[in-house]
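DATA SHEET
Item: assembly model
Revision: 1
Owner: S.N.
Input lines:
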Amino acid sequence: MPHDHHDHDNLSPSGHPFRADNDEPLSYWQTMEIALREILVEKGHLTQAEITAQIDAMDARNPSQGASVVARAWVDPDFKAQLLADASTASRDMGFDIGPMHLIAVENTDTIHNLIVCTLCSCYPRNLLGLPPDWYKTRAYRSRAVSEPRAVLREFGLNLPDTTTLRVHDSTADMRYIVLPARPAGTDDLSQDELAKLVTRDSMIGVGLPRQP
Amino acid sequence: MSDTDGRRWHDMGGMPAGPIPMEGHDFALWEKRVDALMVLCGNKGFLSVDGLRRALEDMGEDTFEKYSYYERWIASINQNLIEAGLYTLEELGTRMAEVQARGPTYGEANNG
């Protein structure tokens, strides 16, 4: 993951700077969140337990789920065909809660590379990969991914040959994409679990490639 | 934003922009709660993703630059829930004043 923090002190275990969120003075929007949530609970529209369970469910989602789907597609041709035909159903069959989301898997090959973006907002295969990285939601990524994707990829350290066809997929709230990266060479002897460890979040967005074994 | 091509501000695909900012952050509890509120209120039919987006887009370009992602989300959720009649603006205002009076930080204000 190409993080380039200039200050390498004070990084959290995830590699990000610590954010002094709860220590800062209470903000107007935090006040609104507390008030709105309390009113909904008091009126019986939802419960605090539901909110906690939803946060736990979202925290449990992470790119390793997508990685396990990718690794299975690499070793199981029938599953791969199913994934490319209907990624929602294929993911659900592996036990992942995809929700109502229509998920489309797009396959990278020797000659084709895929990149996903949401130019209008922040739509992302969150049920499979977890919440999107901050950069995915920025004006810069949303604007440029569709007009100069090769330059964008270079900023992520990925230099595609001119001969590679680059396909950019613009997501919507109802239709989201995940990239099925190409299986790295020299991985014939690896198990499905070992293969899954090669699959990075960025490789499933298309701004990176899987790790080499 | 151009007013000649029919685009609204949020339709930013292809517009000129600078380098991708690679900085990330760990989500704060209040941000996770906003995310959970959106999902739960959607599942229960109190609001729709389209409704969330409509309010976000109507806030305009200034708010996109000025407020963080989940700040905009809670504002949009609130607008949708008030429109749906789940509570009134007066109820919200009264409760927000109570929350603020509890203490100067999120943790203290949440433990009322």
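QC remark: Residues 29-43 of chain B form the longest helix (15 residues).
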